[in-house]
Amino acid sequence: MAVGTIRYWAAAKAAAGIAEEPYTAGTLAEALDAVRERHPGELTRVLQRCSFLIDGDPVGTRGHETVRLAEGGTVEVLPPFAGG
Question: Do residues 18 and 7 lie in contact, with contact meaning Cβ atoms separated by under 8 Å?
Answer without folding.
Answer: no
